[in-house]
Structures are given as structure tokens and as C-alpha cells.
């Protein structure tokens, strides 16, 4: 416990060591005991589109000086203000934001004044600027309902995937299988460009592992989403925003990388844009060898014959991945466009897992050992098609957008599972029988998404959002299992494990969301979302008498999901926010498939078609403070989950020394925590971003399942440090630590990792060389400890050690047209829907 407390102390000190040193210099404009001073207001918008620029950095500088006397950020509508300015005189207002030229205006401030609308001009080389680390770009930006992390500063993930990038984002954790967690909870919704992806049949893990990290512009964490968003996900939404080219002309990029364990990546992207069209195409190839190892040990408390078992595993997984993306967008007018985009993914995977299982007696003597292997190959094909329409009305801020998406995926999987058992004399065991099984699995999935969103402003400070969405997902999994009969040496059909599983997951939703800035400092947002959901499952197969057997599961429910946000701005660039939302976590895929996964028959996994959706109530109270050199945000949150879905481990009565993991709804869980995130500019060339999440979890037990109440203190944290060594050379390091975490039946083991990277710009910053290393400490591992009335079990899995990667990125082509080819003065009203520099999923 002392060691754990020391780790917490270190994180807190590193996170806040700069706050006291920098805040001393940022109180020049405000004093609670002094007389009220002058007020300066303004609004930042795009020069061409007049769209407000939110979260831009605004500095107030005395004329003929370089040091800012105050700094703030624009709000969601582009507005900013400086209050209680004591000294009259000449000032410069400087506005900085990524992709725009720095704006500067000199004013004579003798009375309170409103600067009105200030127009920022897009940088002619904004495509290049997106991939260059600069001292003025903010890593963290705060919205009314989200935290935004700019992704292009992640040097440690160059040549990597979206999964690698997410592992470096504060509050986000990624396990060794690519599963995503937010604030320590893996029930999180991942979206691409604000909508659920139909690419690859909606397999989020596959999508993220095939998406290059350099295609991502930013990652938004929406920990308490409004009614506008899908309410699925216990801990909120991770929205991945892809890069889009806004510049006229032809441009493109080429990227190459190579690393340890035959890890290679090559890609090329092209984009062309003129007054009427935006066309883009992208091809990316990836291959790599993912190695790992693990162990599993179990002590049975009520089994006198075989009280102990253990197993070790070595994993070797090689995959190759082709991704082709194409997009086109036609602009009928500067305010109306229609986009068509498509993605194609071809993936092959070959896996070889070796296992050695041991069974011990009462005196720790080896009774039996079971060496074996699992050879698996998978051929995966997936594509999606997206049709997007956008129209901006004459009234400023009134918009209509729609999306129709279809995704299709097919995976053909072959599995050969072989295991033999020998006794202490190295002769075939009399108590356990070997296995030689072949599984042919054909998986098909189809996804539809229909979405319509409308925004209607009533005034400059209030607006109404209305929308409709339907998502439909259809999955079929057909498994044919054959077992080798030893005396005939012929494979025969095993009807107990041959089946067809069909899943139909449908959600229809409507929502309304209202925002109003009631005063200069107080705003409210209220929303309501209604959803009708269906989850239907069917399983069928022949019994030993060749009679077709069927079993069905049905889930049909209507729920209403309210949300409310109250935001109060305080003096001195302080901000408070209180929010509540109701959410849901719907059972998915293998959680509801009742057919057992027997790839390891001594550790079987079974789904439950009768699972109910989790009902989630989330509360959050946030505080944000902005100094010239430091950004700080904190959140106190509470979450109650009813009908919690948990994987419960039980002893397998059919296998001497085996366990079964099956999903159940337990009564409820509660968690309350404190999250702190801060970004500090130590110098112009060095910044640190850190976060720490402290929370306590409580699980209500269930006597019928043999589960007792369980609670415990948990925490995790991360540090990111970026240093511009020269104008061309930058370095970065990311450290992550997750302390042991409480579960319904035990604890997850601690996990930590250290990654680092270098980037060197060449050819006038048109190209860059990169080197990064992951898991420098060789410490990235995942494990769990389970303790119930039947057994004590511990397992661990880890990667094969340190990984390194070299990368080259080259950007070419025009980034602007001459003045005669540019758009009309009003310009394009929004970024291209289908014309991405890195095409969207």
C-alpha cells in the first residue's frame, strides 16, 4: 500500500509542479479587492466561411512588448473576453489557431470596447502545418461537453495504427488485444467523424488496427455525452476525427515505415480540389508479426483430486492488411454539397499458439501434462459505402446534414486445435483424453446507418438541434467442427459444436438538444433522446439424431435518455460545469452467443442470449482554468450502473481441473472519482501534459452466482513530454501506469509502459524522418486475479518485448490555387464530407 501511495504522490507532484510557478505571473488583470476595470470582447471567425473558430488561443500584449499580460480561449461560438483590465493604453490582440495565419490587431484601449468580428485567414500551407510540431499549437482544447487532443504531435506512434495512438491519449487505456478503455472502464463507444463506422462490419478493433495513426487529426473524449450522441458506452464516447484537406489544387503524401518483428507500412494519398469538386484516394499496406506469451494458474478450493493447474502459452500472430479509400464531393453551391466515399479492406491473418498445461496433486506433484497448439488462419474482406449531404441555410448557423452508410464484412476462419495428455511416466494419460479438432467458421456481417441532423439558431446565444438515427446490424456465424477419431484416423462431424448463430441488432432514435447562453457567463444545454432497441438471436444445429434444434433470444425495449449541462464562467478565466446523462451498454456479439468457445477446453467461454442492457446514470462536475502557460481541467464524477454485465468464472463440472467463463447481469456497480488533466509550457520548446484518474469502485454481489460484494480504490495516470530540440528536430516520451483495478470477482493486475519517439524535418519541412520505440521498459502486460468460493485463479499475458520503428513521410503538390481559381468570397462553408486527404472510415 505504501508503494501505491508513493506512485500517486509522484504523479500529483509532476502534474501540478508548474501550476504554482506560472500562476503567480497571471494575476495582473484581476484582483478580488480592487476596483472593476475595463472589458475587451471580440469574436474569431473564418475569413471565408464566417464559421466561428472555437478554442483558439487569444493573447493580450502591451504595445512594444512581447510578454502577454493575459491569455484566454474562444468559446464554442468563437467569442472571447478580457475583464477587469486596470491599465489603459495601447495593446495588441493576438489570435493563434492551427491551420490559420496568426492574427494581430493593435488597439487603443481607453474604455471598455467590443472588437466585433475578427476574421482569421487559413494558412496557405495548412496541410504541412498539420504535421509539424509547433510551440503555439494547443495539445488540449476544451469544449462544452468534450476534451480535444490534437493527434499530430504524437511522435511515439509514427508508422503505427489508431490503436497505438489511442494508447497515448490521457484517460484512455488499450490492452494487448486492442480493446479500448476510458477512465478504467472498457464499455466505451468509439466513433469515426461523429458517427458509428460501418466499415468492416463495424468491428471496432479491426477498424482501429487497420487505420494509420497519421490519418488522424484529433481525438475527442466525450465523457458525459449530450442527447445528440448515441448513449451507448458506460464511460462515454471516443470520437476519432480524420484529417481533411481544405486546400485547392493537387496535393498528396507518401509514408513508409519498417520495424522490429517484420513490421512494415507503406501508403500513398492524393487529393484534388477546385471550386466544384473534391476528389481523394488513399492506399495503405501494413504487415507485422505480433508476438506474446502468457500463463494461467488455478487453485481449486473444493477439488481434492486436482487442486492445482497451470498453463503457459506462446503466441505468434502475423497479419497483412490492404486498405483502399476513395472519396468524391460535389459542391452545388458554396453552401450545399453531396459526398460519396468508400473503403475497402483486405486482411489475412495467420496465428500459431503453443500451450503446455500441467495438473498437480495435493503434494504439488505433476499428475498430467498437456502440450498442444492452435493453428489458425483467417481471410477477412470488408467494405463500406457512405453518402453524405450537407446544406447551410441563409440564417447564420442553420444547417442540415444527412448520412446513409452501408458496410459489409466476411471472414473465413480455419482452426486446428491439437492437445495431448501424458502422465508422470510420460505415457498417455488415463484420466484425460487428447484432442485434435478442426473448426471452419464463416462470419458475415452487414451494417446500415441512417442519420439526419438539423440545427436551428434562435439568436446568437441560443439554438435547437434535432435529429434521427437508425442503425441496423446483422451478423451470421456458421461453425462446422470436426474431431479426429483415433482408431479410424478420420475426422468426423461433431454436431455438439457445429451450429449457426444469427444476430440482429437494431436501434431507432430521435433526439432534441437545446442550448442557451442565458447571461454572459452562464449557459445551459438540455437534451432528450428516445430509442427503440431490438436484440434478436437465433442458434440452430443438428443433434446426434440429425434433428434440427433451434433456440432464440429476444430483447425489445424503449428508453428515454435525458442530458443536462450547466456552465458557469468565473473571473480570471475559470470555468465550472455540472452535467448529467443517462446511458446504456447493450450486450454484443460473443457476449450473447451461447455456443461455447472451446479453443482451450479447460478454460471455456460462453455467451448468454438473455443478457439485459446495462442502465447507466452519469454525473460530472468539472472545473477548468487557463493561464498563459498552463491549461488545467479537473472533473469529479459519479456513475451508477444497473444490471452490470460481468464475465463470471466458475468451475467446470465436466472437466476435471477446468473453468467456464459466462456472462451474467449482476445487481449494480458504483464508481466515484477525480480526474485531473494539465498541460504546461515549461519553455517555448518544451511542454508536458499529464493526467491522473483516482476512483473507487463498488460491486453489489449476487448470492445465486456465488459473488460477494467487492469494492476498492483504483487509479491510473499518464505523462507526455514533447521537446523541440531544434527547428527541425523534436522528441517525445509517453509514460502510462494503471494500478491494480477492482472487478466483481477480484482485481486486474497493474500495467505500465514507456514509449518515445524522434522526428526530424527535411527538405524544408516537406518531409520528415521518424524513429520510435514502444514498451522501452519491457513492462507492458495484462493480467487478472480472481477469487471466489470455488477457486483462486491468476492469468497474465504480455507482448514479446520492446518494439522499434523507422518512418519516412513526404508531402508534395500544390496547397493553393492562384487568385483567379479560388472560390467566391463566401468560400466553402465546411470541410469536405467525402474528400479527405486521408479518407474517412
Describe the structure.
- The protein has 841 residues and is mainly beta.
- The chain folds into two domains: 85 residues, Immunoglobulins (Immunoglobulin-like, Sandwich), CATH 2.60.40.10; 530 residues, Maltoporin, Chain A.
- The chain is built from four helices and 43 strands.
- The longest helix is centred in the first third of the chain and has 22 residues.
SSE layout:
Layout: H1 2-23, E1 38-46, E2 57-62, E3 68-73, E4 79-85, E5 89-96, E6 103-109, E7 113-120, H2 126-129, E8 140-142, E9 147-150, H3 162-166, E10 172-174, E11 180-182, E12 189-192, H4 204-210, E13 216-222, E14 237-242, E15 249-259, E16 263-273, E17 277-300, E18 308-333, E19 336-360, E20 366-392, E21 399-419, E22 422-423, E23 435-459, E24 462-485, E25 490-493, E26 499-517, E27 522-542, E28 548-570, E29 574-585, E30 603-606, E31 614-626, E32 630-651, E33 659-683, E34 686-699, E35 710-724, E36 729-738, E37 741-742, E38 746-748, E39 751-762, E40 767-774, E41 781-787, E42 791-799, E43 803-813
Parallel strand pairs: 1-7, 12-14, 30-33
Antiparallel strand pairs: 1-4, 2-3, 2-5, 5-6, 8-9, 9-13, 10-11, 13-14, 15-16, 15-43, 16-17, 17-18, 17-42, 18-19, 19-20, 20-21, 20-22, 21-23, 23-24, 24-25, 24-26, 26-27, 27-28, 28-29, 29-31, 31-32, 32-33, 33-34, 34-35, 35-36, 36-39, 37-38, 38-41, 39-40, 40-43, 41-42
Keywords: Cell outer membrane, Membrane, Receptor, Signal, Transmembrane, Transmembrane beta strand, Transport
Pfam family, one: OMP_b-brl_3
Region (Disordered): 817-841
Amino acid at each position: 500500500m505504501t508503494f501505491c501511495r508513493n506512485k500517486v504522490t509522484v504523479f500529483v507532484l509532476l502534474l501540478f509542479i508548474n501550476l504554482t510557478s506560472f500562476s503567480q505571473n497571471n494575476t495582473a488583470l484581476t484582483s478580488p479587492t480592487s476596483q472593476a476595470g475595463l472589458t475587451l470582447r471580440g469574436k474569431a471567425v473564418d475569413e471565408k466561411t464566417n464559421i466561428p473558430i472555437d478554442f483558439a488561443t487569444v493573447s493580450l500584449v502591451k504595445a512594444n512588448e512581447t510578454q502577454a499580460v493575459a491569455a484566454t480561449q474562444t468559446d464554442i461560438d468563437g467569442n472571447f473576453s478580457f475583464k477587469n483590465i486596470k491599465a489603459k493604453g495601447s495593446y495588441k490582440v493576438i489570435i493563434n489557431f492551427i491551420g490559420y495565419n496568426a492574427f494581430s490587431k493593435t488597439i487603443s484601449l481607453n474604455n471598455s470596447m467590443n472588437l466585433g468580428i475578427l476574421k482569421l485567414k487559413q494558412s496557405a500551407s495548412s496541410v504541412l502545418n498539420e504535421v509539424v510540431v509547433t510551440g503555439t499549437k494547443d495539445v488540449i482544447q476544451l469544449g462544452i461537453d468534450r476534451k480535444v487532443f490534437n493527434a499530430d504531435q504524437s511522435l511515439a506512434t509514427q508508422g503505427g495504427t489508431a490503436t497505438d495512438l489511442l494508447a497515448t491519449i490521457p484517460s484512455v487505456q488499450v490492452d494487448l488485444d486492442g480493446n479500448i478503455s476510458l477512465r478504467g472502464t472498457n464499455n466505451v463507444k468509439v466513433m469515426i467523424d461523429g458517427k458509428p463506422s460501418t466499415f468492416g462490419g463495424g468491428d471496432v478493433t479491426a477498424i482501429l488496427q487497420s487505420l494509420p495513426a497519421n490519418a488522424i487529426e484529433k481525438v475527442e473524449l466525450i465523457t458525459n455525452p449530450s442527447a445528440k450522441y448515441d448513449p451507448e458506452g458506460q464511460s462515454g464516447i471516443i470520437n476519432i476525427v480524420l484529417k481533411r484537406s481544405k486546400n485547392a489544387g493537387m496535393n498528396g503524401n507518401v509514408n513508409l515505415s519498417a520495424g522490429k518483428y517484420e513490421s512494415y507500412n507503406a501508403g500513398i494519398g492524393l487529393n484534388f480540389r477546385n471550386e466544384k469538386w473534391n476528389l481523394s484516394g488513399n492506399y495503405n499496406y501494413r504487415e507485422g508479426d505480433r508476438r506474446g506469451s502468457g500463463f494461467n494458474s488455478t487453485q481449486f478450493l473444493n477439488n481434492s483430486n486436482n487442486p492445482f493447474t497451470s498453463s503457459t502459452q506462446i503466441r505468434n500472430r502475423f497479419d497483412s492488411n490492404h486498405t483502399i479509400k476513395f472519396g468524391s464531393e460535389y459542391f452545388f453551391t458554396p453552401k450545399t454539397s453531396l459526398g460519396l466515399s468508400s473503403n475497402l479492406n483486405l486482411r489475412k491473418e495467420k496465428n500459431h499458439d503453443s500451450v503446455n498445461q500441467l495438473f498437480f496433486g495435493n503434494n504439488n506433484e505433476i499428475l498430467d501434462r498437456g502440450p498442444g497448439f492452435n493453428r489458425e488462419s483467417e481471410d477477412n474482406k470488408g467494405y463500406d459505402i457512405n453518402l453524405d449531404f450537407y446544406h447551410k441555410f441563409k440564417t447564420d448557423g442553420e444547417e442540415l446534414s444527412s448520412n446513409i452508410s452501408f458496410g459489409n464484412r466476411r471472414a473465413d476462419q480455419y482452426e486446428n486445435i491439437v492437445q495431448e495428455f501424458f502422465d508422470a511416466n510420460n505415457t498417455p494419460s488415463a484420466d484425460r483424453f487428447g484432442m485434435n479438432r478442426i473448426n471452419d467458421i464463416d462470419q458475415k456481417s452487414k451494417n446500415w446507418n441512417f442519420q439526419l441532423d438539423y440545427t436551428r439558431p434562435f439568436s446568437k446565444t441560443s439554438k435547437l438541434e434535432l435529429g434521427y438515427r437508425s442503425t441496423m446490424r446483422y451478423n451470421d456465424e456458421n461453425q462446422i467442427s470436426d474431431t479426429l477419431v483415433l482408431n479410424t484416423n478420420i475426422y468426423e462431424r461433431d454436431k455438439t459444436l457445429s451450429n449457426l448463430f444469427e444476430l440482429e441488432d437494431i436501434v431507432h432514435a430521435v433526439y432534441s438538444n437545446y442550448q442557451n447562453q442565458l447571461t454572459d457567463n452562464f449557459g445551459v444545454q438540455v437534451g432528450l433522446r428516445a430509442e427503440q432497441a431490438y436484440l434478436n438471436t437465433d442458434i440452430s444445429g443438428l443433434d446426434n439424431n440429425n434433428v434440427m434444434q433451434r433456440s432464440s433470444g429476444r430483447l425489445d425495449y424503449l428508453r428515454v435518455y435525458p442530458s443536462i449541462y450547466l456552465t458557469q464562467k468565473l473571473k480570471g478565466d475559470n470555468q465550472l460545469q455540472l452535467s448529467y446523462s443517462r446511458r446504456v451498454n447493450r450486450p454484443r456479439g460473443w457476449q450473447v452467443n451461447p455456443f461455447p468457445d472451446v479453443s482451450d477446453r479447460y478454460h471455456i467461454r460462453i455467451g448468454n442470449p438473455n443478457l439485459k442492457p446495462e442502465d447507466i446514470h452519469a454525473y460530472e462536475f468539472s472545473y477548468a482554468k487557463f493561464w498563459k502557460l498552463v491549461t488545467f481541467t479537473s472533473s469529479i464524477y459519479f456513475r451508477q450502473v444497473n444490471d452490470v454485465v460481468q464475465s463470471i468464472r466458475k468451475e467446470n463440472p465436466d472437466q476435471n481441473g477446468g473453468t467456464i467463463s459466462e456472462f451474467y447481469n449482476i445487481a449494480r456497480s458504483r464508481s466515484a472519482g477525480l480526474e485531473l488533466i494539465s498541460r504546461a509550457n515549461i519553455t517555448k520548446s518544451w511542454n508536458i501534459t499529464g493526467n491522473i484518474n483516482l476512483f473507487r469502485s463498488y460491486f453489489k454481489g449476487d448470492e445465486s452466482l456465488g459473488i460477494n460484494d467487492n469494492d476498492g480504490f483504483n487509479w491510473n495516470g499518464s505523462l507526455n513530454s514533447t521537446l523541440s530540440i531544434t527547428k527541425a528536430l523534436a522528441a517525445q516520451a509517453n509514460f502510462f501506469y494503471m494500478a491494480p483495478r477492482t472487478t466483481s470477482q477480484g482485481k486486474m493486475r497493474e500495467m505500465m509502459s514507456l514509449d518515445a519517439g524522434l522526428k526530424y524535418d527535411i527538405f524544408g519541412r516537406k518531409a520528415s524522418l521518424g524513429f520510435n520505440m514502444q514498451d522501452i521498459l519491457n513492462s507492458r502486460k495484462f493480467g487478472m486475479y480472481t477469487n471466489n468460493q470455488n477457486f483462486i485463479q491468476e492469468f497474465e499475458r504480455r507482448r514479446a518485448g520492446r518494439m522499434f520503428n523507422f518512418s519516412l513521410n513526404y508531402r508534395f503538390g500544390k496547397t493553393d490555387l492562384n487568385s483567379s481559381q479560388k472560390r467566391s468570397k463566401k468560400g466553402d462553408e465546411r470541410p469536405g464530407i467525402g474528400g479527405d486527404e486521408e479518407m474517412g472510415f
